[in-house]
Amino acid sequence: MGRIHRLPVSVVNRIAAGEVVERPASVVKELLENALDASPSRIDVALEQGGVALVRVVDDGVGIDADDLPLAVTAHATSKLRVAEDLERIDTLGFRGEALASIGEVARLVVRSRPRDAGTTPAGASITVNGGRIGDVVPDAGAPGTTVEVHQLFGNVPARRAFLRTPQTEWSHASEAFVRTALAHPGVAFTLSHNGRRVHDLPATTSWRRRISDCFGNDLGDRLLDVEADDGEIGLGGLMGHPQDDVAAGRLQHLFVAGRPFRDRAILHAVQEGYRGLLLGGRHPVIFLRFDMPPEMVDVNVHPAKMEVRFRDPQRLYRLVLAALRERL
Ligand SMILES: Nc1ncnc2c1ncn2[C@@H]1O[C@H](COP(=O)(O)OP(=O)(O)OP(=O)(O)O)[C@@H](O)[C@H]1O
Ligand SMILES: [Mg+2]
Q: Could you tell me which CATH class the domain 218-328 is placed in?
């Protein structure tokens, strides 16, 4: 008898869930990305107890057909990719077909949807997943669009629940995830509530400065300088702080590519170099940068949580950022 056996799907999903869902902030991020991929005009987010008790995301996007609901919550099922080559040119925020299945594995997940296009199924429907057990599709009246609720995150995974911090700390991570995503999509209106209290109300705008002001206050937004650069193929746009408006490490430094916030030490190093000689030791500039480039120049399929991306030519980005900032200072 061999000792190697195939793992049951439930175990495979539980392992995958560990990579995608770390805390309520990961749920907020995944649900916001799903809502954004559905071409919405507005997204409303509500959390209870830092998101541990409830994360609810409501969008007015294209919706999901009732027949598709079981697949939407099944691992490796997606409407966003078909063939391996599609991975070379990803133009949606999601593509792995894993997020809802992972969340349904470690919480109680309810997806309610009604397709926006009246030509298809006019009625709405919902499906519930509880600790990986997928329930039946049931009729559910509601406005066009999709509502996703995640109740009692890690309620069935004591080992994971033990790693959650206080609701206050989880709330602060979750609201940061909300703000990062909302910054990347100024054209969509967002709201965020916590324990019934409205915390952010961000109207849709074409101005990135407006969205930044709505997130962080007019005092900050009004003082930022515009940055713009272009090397023929890669575009760079954004806003930068005056050297005297410096901040501690890790705060108010935001990078985006293809509608996605990302982290990148090398680019932040270029930013710091751009301000060289103008900052006090240990301080950092406020920076909001957005890169525009053809999808084949950036690979987002690096890690399940998609927080890091790989660029085909990182040196080129470094030079572009450095030159653009130096020119403004
Ligand atoms: N808010 C939504 N509006 C419309 N369709 C949705 C929404 N949320 C999920 N879906 C559908 O359910 C599918 C599964 O979502 P899920 O997040 O699990 O995977 P994904 O977004 O395709 O990939 P990833 O795992 O990278 O997020 C999506 O491909 C999409 O078709
Ligand atoms: Mg997704």
A: alpha beta
Cβ–ligand 1 distance for 62 under 6 Å, the answer: yes
The residues spanned by each domain of the chain are: 9-202, 218-328
167-184 vs 24-37: helix axis angle to the nearest 10?
Answer: 20
pLDDT category at 67 given cuts 50, 70, 90 is very high
Please name the residue whose Cα sits nearest to atom 29 of ligand 1.
78
Site to probe by mutation for ligand 1, drawn from 31, 34, 39, 41 as the one with most ligand atoms within 8 Å of Cβ, is 34
- Residue range 96-115, pLDDT digits in tens: 899 999 999 999 999 999 99
User: Helices 314-328 and 265-274, interaxial angle, to 10°?
Assistant: 30
pLDDT value at position 186?
A: 98
Distance from residue 310's CA to the centre of ligand 2 (Å) = 20
Domains 9-202 and 218-328 share a fold: no
Q: What CATH number should be reported for the domain whose range is 9-202?
A: 3.30.565.10
Residue 122 has pLDDT above 90, yes or no: no
Please identify, by atom number, the ligand 1 atom nearest to the C-alpha of residue 92: 21
Give me the pLDDT at residue 26, please.
Answer: 96
Please tell me the residue having the least CA distance from ligand 1 atom 11.
72
Any ligand 1 atom below 6 A from CB of 264: no
Q: Is the CB of 190 under 6 A from ligand 1?
A: no
Q: pLDDT at position 151, please?
A: 98
Nearest CA to ligand 1 atom 17: 99
Q: Look at strands 225-230 and 235-240 and give their pairing.
A: antiparallel
What is the arithmetic mean of pLDDT over 271-285?
Answer: 93
Decide: 257 and 288 in contact? Cβ < 8 Å.
Answer: no
The whole-number pLDDT of residue 119 equals 64
Q: Which residues are close to ligand 2, an ion, with C-beta < 5 A? A: 34, 94, 99
Q: Where are the alpha helices (DSSP H) in the chain?
A: 9-20, 24-37, 69-72, 99-105, 158-161, 167-184, 208-216, 218-223, 265-274, 314-328
